[in-house]
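My main concern about presentation is that the manuscript never shows what a single data entry looks like. In essence, backbone conformation is discretised, so a fold becomes a row of integers matching the chain in length. An entry of this sort, consisting of the sequence and the corresponding backbone structure tokens, reads as follows:
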Amino acid sequence: MVAEQIRNVRAHIPAGVTLVCVSKFHPVEAIREAYEAGERHFGESRVQELQKKVPALPADIHWHFIGHLQTNKVRDLLKMRPYLIQSVDSVRLLQAINDEAAKQGFVQDVLLEVHVAKEESKTGFSPEEISNQQSAISNNHYPNIRILGLMAMATNTDDETEIRRCFSKAKELLSTLDVKLSTLSMGMSDDYRIAIECGSTMVRIGSTIFGSRGSTPNYTVRALPKAVFFDQDGVLFNSMPYHARSWEWAMHKHGLPFTENQTYQNEGRTGASVINEANRLIHGVDATPELIEAVYADKSQHFNELTGGKLPELIPGIREVLAFLKSRGVQCWVVTGSGQKSLLDNLRKTFPDTFSGVISAFDVQHGKPHPEPYLKAWERCGFAKNECMVVENAPLGVRAGKAAELFTVAVNTGILPDSALWEEKADVVLPDMQALLAWLQQCQ
């Protein structure tokens, strides 16, 4: 019972320490139960999840954004007026929040995330970088941001000495800053009591209150795979928001109604397949070659305009996943339905010595959800099927991996619910790349 768990937690939290109930991945009903028990501070890590929960819950809830925030999501997040953004981890993100808050006409409260853990997968400013931000703060370089303090996470370990080192480092940094900041957010379900002892003024507690997320089975493979096949869009690059907007624009230009949701539902198909599907829905027949060429050219041009010809941001945590697999001698491949040369060129530039091969729309006759792309990667890698694994983020990509009889892990980086991935028989569904890395590390 959520209310009972809250009472148990609050018994260990002194006055003056704010409890943030980490409600990410938990249903509205559970949040409402915590609200009725008196809680008002809730933490979420994904903008699209907040967009669903905010209108469904009381208006006096204080929403804390605690996950990695991508700059292209800042506008949507600020439209919801979050109470506090705790995970500001770069100067680029600071500037993006300041600029967008100025456009929307308000001042946004934030915390600076400081990296004190002995884990490269954790993000944040180094202590030195935090110190270097003092002049910018005191000189009001960010007039539409109010920096209240720091947020920190300890190393993921059972070593209490190491946990105390992390928290004490953050506390020491806060106290030595010339700019006086009052908020120190650190401590989660497993270590919040230590964090409070070390000076935390805000704790973020999820599983102790709400229980486990319940969506991912405790499945452990016997050994690391010898080859992993990665989808590109939504797995390596955070390019799907740009694809969604450019597909919608190009389709409408040619008289084919198309929505953002349809882009995610069709993710993984070749461009020709997506256009054919849209044309069949409206006109009952496949698109002509001329229409396919025109729509795809317009879509690609609009995509490049939206990105300014720049590389889309990487999915947070993907570099750490790839580095771990490479350190274990695992082959990594890219299997994508993309035929967009700009993205494929950027792939090779961004990961020059990472991938053993790339299977794209130029290599297959049938795109996803047909198994051909993954079967081709499997044939080329030279390993048995039970030595290979697929990493996908899209329902049709999961379907392709399973049709190829390959173990398929889904990492939900998009706007569709987890159920859309489970329905396609994913072997595992995970919320982000950090969870994938942890899952791989526990493979024997």
User: Anything to note?
Assistant: The chain has three domains: 2-210, 227-238+313-441, 241-307. Residues 9 and 77 are 29 Å apart (CA to CA). Residues 214-222 have pLDDT under 50 and may be disordered.
